[in-house]
Amino acid sequence: MSTPLQVYEPFKAGLPKLGRYWKSLWSRRTFIAEHSKSELREQHFDTAFGQFWLVINPLLLSGVYFILIVIIGGKTDTTRYVHLTGTLFLFYLVSNSLSSGVKAVTSGQRLILNTAFPRIMLPLSSVVIALFKFFPTIIVFIVIKAVVGSSFSIEMLWAIPILLITTLLALGLAITISCINVYFRDMASFLPYMTRTLLYLSPILYEASTLKPGLRILEYVNPLFPILDSWSRALVYGQNPELSSMLAGLGWAAGIFFIGTYIFLSREREFAVRL
Amino acid sequence: MSSLSVSNSHKTKEIAVSVRDVSLTYSTTIDRRPTFKTRVKALARGKKQTRVVQALRNVNLDVEYGHVLGVIGANGAGKSSLMRCIAGILPPSQGRIEVYGSVSTLLALGVGFNPSMSGRTNVYLGGLAAGMSREEINGHFDEIASFSELGDAIDAPMRTYSSGMFARLAFSVAATVRPDILIIDEALSTGDAKFKEKSLNRVKELRSDDRALILVSHAMQTLRETCNDVVWLDKGKVISRGEPNQVIDAYQEFLQVGKSAAIDEDV
């Protein structure tokens, strides 16, 4: 068997060799899964009560927001509640990826200082955890939809590509914010305000079609706007999402993922001296 | 980032690690916890926010298969930085490092462990973090459990372990990895005297013709007994390299501690 040769030389900036990096990341997939599972077990999501809390927490939140909508907006209907619940669950996928991802690198200090591995594994693991938390909420959403008598249709399958786009966006955001937090540790303190603002600027408490013309700019500046609008059209109303919304969502997700990954990969070799 | 599960056959005297003219300089923040707030404050006051650390200076070093190289030096001499460069954790600022084979690092114990999980789960977490596959860990699990002497406590959460129990399990996992090149940094000074001896014996077992070992330690007697060569680092520079007794004697003379019984007996 030939001896594997590793050469370590100075780097100025830029990306590592991507083929080798990907191979190394792929060889660590079992560790990513085990690491994510252990984090979930630590938060008791392997127990019945843990699973219950996982579902009841966003459900209670959606109830609170629904009351808010009724008080502020007056009369409302069950479809509005289905929209609120469905979009809130998807929003939580992104929000959980961010809250877990922000400290992914800084809390992995011991691993980073003592083992050579692709550092991107850490924010990736945060998104895997957020996905594990998201999947049970899909079942709850389907139950709610059935209970309120909302119809099911083939167009609902659009949810699959929309979920893939959302995961790409969540990954891009988690990678970017985990890297920023190495240099500015108070990023974690700002994050709750940022996610709360993002929640209000997204079509969750309201529907995209009801937005005032003066606020239409939100469709273009908020990456989650076209994604949540498409999600609601497909899952709540059983309609085909608009192509322009799908493309805008994909564009945002791919853009944030590639820029964030570039920044992360070009900086990750100095994380060991920054932690 | 090579896989540890691949072990290649090497001949004694073949080069395992070649370090050529390596320097490591990096800038790090003055604040231990850099924040946006402190950055803005420092900018407003015109204060420096980073400091430059020169950890290694023109280091040249070869490690051959079949050899055990000891690394000594005072705190801050650059020993751990050099090990991190060889392991690919830190890229050098100058020079070139060639590593011919799979590397495993034992720079700290319990890397990848989650204290909330049981010892059993942590055997898998630690092993996977060290680059082993699940199948390899399955195959070695009984050996790890037996070496750690934890008995039924292996199924208890690790947060309930004493520091000695934690160290025993962590060393047992780490010592199971069978790489071509093994770097051990201060990891032998764990557990009680009996376990220290057991760990040292395991390291001696790991010496073989087709493996290279690099041992960083302040335990001089261990290095005298175990190593073929010792290199002495000071302020990032190689001061001397050669036969263990000669280099260690010179280092101890430099430290003006002579043959301290305390140092000799610490394994």
Automatic annotation (TrEMBL), chain A:
The ABC transmembrane type-2 domain, residue ranges: 49-267
Keywords annotated in UniProt: Cell inner membrane, Cell membrane, Membrane, Transmembrane, Transmembrane helix, Transport
PROSITE patterns linked to this entry: ABC_TM2
Transmembrane segments: 52-74, 81-100, 120-144, 156-184, 243-265
Any one GO BP annotation for this protein: lipopolysaccharide transport
Record's keyword annotation contains Ligase: no
GO molecular function, one term: ABC-type transporter activity
Membrane topology: Multi-pass membrane protein
UniProt keyword annotation of Signal present: no
Cellular location(s): Cell inner membrane
GO cellular component: plasma membrane
Short name of one Pfam family: ABC2_membrane
InterPro entries: ABC2_TM (IPR013525), ABC2_TM_bact-type (IPR047817)
Record-given protein name: Unannotated protein
TrEMBL record, chain B:
GO terms of molecular function: ABC-type transporter activity; ATP binding; ATP hydrolysis activity
Domain ABC transporter residue range list: 38-260
Gene3D superfamilies, sorted: P-loop containing nucleotide triphosphate hydrolases (3.40.50.300)
SUPFAM superfamilies tied to this protein: P-loop containing nucleoside triphosphate hydrolases (SSF52540)
Keywords: ATP-binding, Nucleotide-binding, Transport
Stored Pfam families: ABC_tran (PF00005)
GO cellular component: membrane
Family of this protein: Belongs to the ABC transporter superfamily.
Protein name: Unannotated protein
